[in-house]
Amino acid sequence: MADGSILVAGSLHYDFVFDAPHLPAIDETVMGGPVRFVCGGKGGNQAAAAALHGARAAMVARIGDDWFGRQLLQDLIDAGVDTSQVQKDDTAASGMSVAIVDRQADYGAVVASGANQTLDPDGIDLPEDTAFLLLQNEIPEAVNLTLATRARAAGAIVVLNAAPMRPMDSALLTTVGVLVVNRVEAEALFGVDTANRVKLTECLSERGGGPERFIATLGADGLVSHRIGQAACYHQAFDVEARSTHGAGDHFVGALAAGLAAGREFDAAVDYAQAAAALFVANSSAGRSKPDFDRIEAMLAKRRSG
């Protein structure tokens, strides 16, 4: 069980996920299928992942007064997430998205935010034992800034998954203890081709400001982590056969927060989250409801020994 609790403030989306031979080009209609219905949103995904990996996780979000919102709420409850601070909007619909997964397990998505954009930070309670606040960029930045400022002042560590990428106020970044981005977002932040891992590592090692800790996930190419004042560290990817990468980044962030809250050192928590995300992409949707902790620890033991 984790030593401190995790509060996730973010989005909830009811996802329609389609399999297709490839992502559509402009003006192209692609015949695909089957379709899967998944309760998601970056915030919901990360809260569920944190809870599934043993953390005491609570969710701050906003849903519509509709069938989709009820499904989203129940999914969090089933994952063990505290939903007492999930707000209900009587006028806006719950958030939704459409995602397309191709034969290479890559995906693209379109999001309709709905009630996520009306999340009200006033009256949100920050529990005294909150150790980590998880944020993403699918809710208004003003809400992120308000909650991050309160969390930082209370001694909690703010973890920002800057996805999807958008211009971010420096006032927000000064509250962030851990910034997590994928390769697209890293390129936007630093203007460096993440396919050149050496260049990315050098660029991060020279980083002198911003959040103390930084993680750039590179999918099957592993990830690079960095702490200001130290050399950046490359973590090789675990070798798995991907079934779908949809939601993998969120699972990584949730598992990372759970690892940190359980007292793992930063690099150990990064490795743990990387192994958890690797197994996540290797499983079908039905196999993602419960992490295989024994296999995760076996992967970590093999990495330490080799």
Task: Describe the structure in your own words.
With 306 residues, this protein is α/β, with parallel strands linked by helices. Helices cover 33% and strands 26% of the residues. It is built from nine helices and 13 strands. It has helices at residues 42-52, 67-79, 141-153, 170-173, 183-190, 197-205, 248-261, 266-282, 293-305; strands spanning 5-9, 13-19, 35-40, 57-64, 82-89, 95-101, 107-112, 130-136, 157-161, 176-182, 213-217, 223-227, 233-235. The strands form two sheets. Strands 5-4-1-8-9-10-11-12-13 form a nine-stranded mixed beta sheet, sandwiched between helices. The chain has a four-stranded mixed beta sheet with strand order 3-2-6-7. α1 crosses α7. The chain is globular. The model has no long low-confidence stretch (mean pLDDT 90).
Question: What characteristic shape results from the CA principal axes?
Answer: globular
Number of strands: 13
Order of helices and strands: EEEHEHEEEEHEHEHHEEEHHH
Instruction: State the separation between the terminal residues, measured CA to CA.
Output: 29 Å
Treating each run of at least 4 consecutive H or I residues as one helix, how many helices? 9
Strand content: 25-35%
Strand order in the largest sheet: 5-4-1-8-9-10-11-12-13
